[in-house]
Here is the input.
Amino acid sequence: MEKPKFIPYNRPIVETSEVLVRSHSFYEEMDTRRTVRLFSDKAVPKKVIENIIMTASSAPSGAHKQPWTFCVVSDPKIKKAIRIAAEKEEYDSYNGRMSAEWLRDLTPLGTDWNKPFLEIAPWLIIVFRKAYDLVDGERRRCYYVNESVGIASGFLLVAIHQAGLVSLTHTPSPMNFLQKILNRPENERAFLLVPVGYPAADADVPDLKRKPLEEVAVFY
Here is the structure.
């Protein structure tokens, strides 16, 4: 087996005082992030989306397999097809698939099966996970796929927020229609659908509170 190649880690060491400042500043910035369902159709440059995707693709992954594909849609016809298919699945979910408890938990969010943002937002980023790799037609195993793609999706949301844009994590279930509409290969499965753009002028969000530190962390 060939000996692995390593290079020096050369990021400058940051003093503790600066670490404290940076960590708090970044927390305050990310604490303003909200899921937005009311989008503007204002254009967002393609280069911005490319930068966001490359940030997401810098995430760690099992054995560095990078088992993801980010499909980016701006074509109005494809967005319309996605909306029609997504709303069909969502209608069925809100009218029979979801339990009473689930519907009750969604009530404070004011959601329903109508998804106009799928056509209004200038960009849709569909994250696909690779169940396995295809290299010259041969299957190659991927490791910790869900964990890896989940982390990359988190990076994606952070990058969108940092750029000054808004997003929504949309997961119509089932999502098989995305593989068909986008003609993705057999090894890819839709993981997350993320509309990206500017908020509408009248955008509002639910009045929610995040759990405090003592409810989300245990120190030993």
In short: The mean pLDDT is 96. The two ends are 41 Å apart (CA to CA). Residues 76-97 form the longest helix (22 residues). The domain at 37-199 is CATH 3.40.109.10 (NADH Oxidase).
